[in-house]
Structure formats: structure tokens, C-alpha cells
Amino acid sequence: MRWFARTFFSIVLLSAFSCTDEAPRFTVPYARVYFQIDVNGLDSDLSFFDYKVFTQGRTLGEQTGYGGLLVFRTAEGTIFAYDLCCPHEDNREIKVSPTDNGKAVCPKCGSVFVTMYGLGTPESGPAKEPLQRYTVRKNLNREGAFVITN
Q: CA 130 to CA 70: how far, in whole Å?
């Protein structure tokens, strides 16, 4: 009986530690992302259920990924960030265009991506991969400030 309990406990531990969260898979070529958003300051125009597009950094050291950044704020205030490059086209010059209904559309292939839930999943069109997502973390030193990284 002891042998069974030890074996069971070992399997449970092994399973628990092997189920770690995978790093986001890159759907477009890698390019460094480091960008800051401040909804109480410089980005106060990023209202609820709205978006902003950034194609270059605003301060020294800020970088916006492969094709630029699409930053979406949900109706609840959650911030999501995506690369503007369409994963089907894989060309930094072909950028998705956000719409007012929480989606983004590729002007070349016509793929539509849902951005309002944080996944960037393709809804229609030839794209099979989602938009490249980036990590958004709260800046603990400033209320309403967020840091976007990859």
C-alpha cells in the first residue's frame, strides 16, 4: 500500500510541474517589444472598448515589435496588445486595421481577427494563426500605467 501511495504522489507531483504555462508562440517574425501605456496620462484618450495604434516608440528604448502595436482596452478596462502584422501575410508592411467593434482586418488577405477578448483569433479569411499577442503587465509604481513586452 505504501508503494502505491508513493507512486501516486510522485505522478501527481510530476503532472503538476509539467503543466506550466507555455510562452506565447510567435506567429510573426520576432522583434523586441517594450512599450509603456498610461491611461491616466499620455494615453488618457484610450477609453473603454477602444484602441490605439503605435508604429514607433515614444521614448528612448521603447520598441513596438515587428509591424507595430495594436493596443486594445476592453469595456472592463483590461489592456491587450497585439502586433499589427497579419500572421497570414508575414510582412511588416501589411498591417491589420482595427475596427470599432473589437476586431482587426487585414487589408490584403481580408482576414478578420477578434481582438476584444485578448486572443486575436482569426474569425474569417485565410489566416489560420492568431495575431501575435504580447504580455501586458501593470506598472506597480503608477496607477493606470502598463508595460507591454514579449
A: 13
